Amino acid sequence: MTYEIALIPGDGIGPEVVDRSLPVVEAAADAHGVSLETTRYDWGSDRYLAEGAMMPDDGLDRLRGYDAIFLGAVGHPEVPDHVTLRGLRLEITKGFKQHVCKRPSYLFEGVTGPLRDYGAGEIDFVVYRQNTEGEYADIGGREYRGHDNEVAFQGAMFTREGTETIVRAAFEAASEREGKLTNVTKSNAQAYGMVFWDDVLREIAGEYPDVEVERLLVDAASMDFVRRPDEFDVLVASNLFGDILTDLGAGISGSMGLAPSSNIDPTQTHPSMFEPVHGSAFDITGEGVANPIGTVLSWELLWAHLGEDALARELRAAVRAQLADPDAPRTPDIGGESGSEAVANDLRTRLG
Ligand code: NAI
Ligand code: MG
């Protein structure tokens, strides 16, 4: 089987983690008889600074025919964050109806998380984040700029399609995992969008009688991520809440550098996009110490999505073995002194 993948390494450590992960992924694919054809797009902040746009006008059309898209990260110290995010990542997630952002958190053996009471495998949950609308809808405006009556308005949008899609994906995942779904909203304070969300969830829950539903307000959920993370299995949340909770999920599982993410169109009409959770990390760009594991685990999600389960498992097994080995190289974010390249080279030796 041959897969065509569009690579958008992007900014900062994006190209570093993409380039370090590729030889590992290619070697694993080779061993499984999977052929991987990548096309690289130099879209991102350098393009914006030179040409005024993060990607070309026909960017989505160029990506449409691929089996999947792999993104590094975007974000540049000289470009406002809302420009980098909206000009590329959100264009793609919204344009390709990637309503579902699936982000697993797992505490691997050999990784010391900040919570002292939890060991390997005891943190193991997946957040399903609505990925195309909610609080990140492009709705709002500013008036009376610079005057003392200045006003900014920021809307949020919850559609039936967007909400049903994420909720259904989360129920499907819960029924395949432990049969437990935690719905995270803030319906006490946000009585329109979030109450609509709860209504949709209640309707769909009827189709999944075997899934137990727990409801949490997002503030309480944040506390419980720290207090009882072992009790979570699948969580579903809006765009903003899911964004925040998954950084917390990365934190309690040891490092932002270990966290994978996927942006999925469940109808498979458009290609889905895979990327590490982290951003461009200016603070470590160019130092060669970015952890490539979150990126390798994002490739795991990509292969699982494309149905190459054995290949996906192989990448995960290599990561698991490396992290569990106290003598293996590791990057500084998880307590080591090695660089990205040493970690990637070591991962290759653990394949097969
Ligand atoms: P960040 O995720 O880039 O970095 C947060 C912290 O985690 C930093 O201390 C960084 O050094 C560390 N870190 C991140 N990835 C790491 C890795 N692979 N290995 C080791 N340490 C790692 O978030 P930050 O600093 O808030 O944002 C930097 C830029 O990235 C901003 O422009 C922001 O808008 C953008 N961003 C882009 C995202 C994307 O492309 N999907 C997601 C998050 C932020
Ligand atoms: Mg985030």
TrEMBL record:
- Which residue ranges does the record annotate as region Disordered? 324-352
A Pfam family of this chain: Iso_dh
Q: Which cofactor does it need?
A: Mg(2+); Mn(2+)
Q: Which residues form the Isopropylmalate dehydrogenase-like domain?
A: 4-347
What the entry lists under InterPro entries is as follows: ICDH/IPMDH, IsoCit/isopropylmalate_DH_CS, IsoPropMal-DH-like_dom
Q: Which PROSITE patterns match?
A: IDH_IMDH
Q: State the UniProt keywords alphabetically.
A: Manganese, Metal-binding, NAD, Oxidoreductase
| Coiled coil segments of this chain | none
> Which protein are we looking at?
3-isopropylmalate dehydrogenase
